Amino acid sequence: MNSMHKDSIIELKSVTVTYPHHTALEFVSLAVMEKEFVGIAGPNGAGKTTLLCAINGLSHILCGTVRVFGKSLFSNIASIRKDIGYVPQIIACDPRIPLRVREVVSMGRYARINFLKRFSAEDRNIVEDAAEVVGISRLMDRPIGHLSGGEQRKVAIARALTQEPKILLLDEPVSHLDLNAQAAISALIEKVHTEKNLTTIMVSHQLDLLPESCNRLILLKEGKIIFTGATQEGLKEDILSRLYGCPVKIIKNGGGCAIRVGTHF
User: Fold this and answer.
1) How many structural domains does the chain have?
2) In angstroms, rounded to a whole number, what is the distance separating the alpha carbons of residues 17 and 28?
3) Residue 12 forms part of a structural domain
């Protein structure tokens, strides 16, 4: 019997994930609706990446249940993962790595086809289309290690899109980038979410860079959800001060805002 909330595409019930020296998630329950854009934020060690991994079947869950597309993740993990595009945190590639951008983007396609199967014309078109969507067509023959940080993030997003996912999980996609690259990647994620009709979950330390289409915010602290609701409702100084354990100031900036953390503003 399907016990998921009506229209939810992801549901976690009382999920606990532990590591040898600490509990990463503690009795977390969450439902994500189809085509929703959810932002996840919290201090270092709050459990943000672990939450994404729990949804993607990459965490060892001590107790609780995860259902995706109305099916138990643990009983259907191979088929479910085909429909989940995952963009992990990126570490700069060694410039000596011989892989070219086209090869890296193409790797995502193997979630749909057997590794031993040759690419069809349709597969190649899907790879080229993904490159065009994220704006890296001109980079396809460049070595991956020669790209900037922002360009490498675009490659990672394109690789996920070649999978033709229904759910897109992004872990800190704007971290360690300059201001222009942060804004560009944030705008790209919003475009991809809207144009591809995806259910999108994005982890971000930089709350002011969550795309406008991010309609729900989840705040994690010490492995527990302390807030879930409309993004603008969560971007309140008292809530964020409790989240980070120090004073937080929200500075209005035209149509957006900047968030400052600390004792002096």
Assistant:
1) 2
2) 9
3) yes
The Cα–Cα gap between 193 and 214 comes to 9
**Prediction pTM value:** 0.91
Give domain status of residue 257, yes or no: no
Residues 103, 141: one domain?
A: yes
Beta strands in 34-135 (DSSP E): 37-41, 61-68, 71-72, 84-87
DSSP state of 17: E
- Residue 228's DSSP bridge partners are 218
Position 2 confidence tier, pLDDT thresholds 50, 70, 90: very low
Structural domain of residue 68, as residue ranges?
1-83+166-236
- Residue 42 and residue 197: Cα distance in Å, rounded? 26
Q: What is the pLDDT of residues 113-160, one digit of tens each?
A: 877 788 999 999 999 999 999 999 999 999 998 999 999 999 999 999
With a pLDDT cut of 90, the percent of the chain lying above it is 71
Q: How many CA atoms lie within 13 A of 120 on its CB side?
A: 5
Span between the terminal Cα atoms of the chain, in Å: 54
**Smallest Cα–Cα separation from 46: which of 232, 259, 226, 246?**
226
Model confidence at 52, pLDDT cuts 50, 70, 90, reads very high
CB neighbour list of residue 134: distance below 8 Å, 6 or more residues apart: 154, 155, 157, 158, 161, 188, 192
Q: Is residue 174 part of a domain?
A: yes
* Other Cβ atoms within 10 Å of 136 Cβ, number: 21
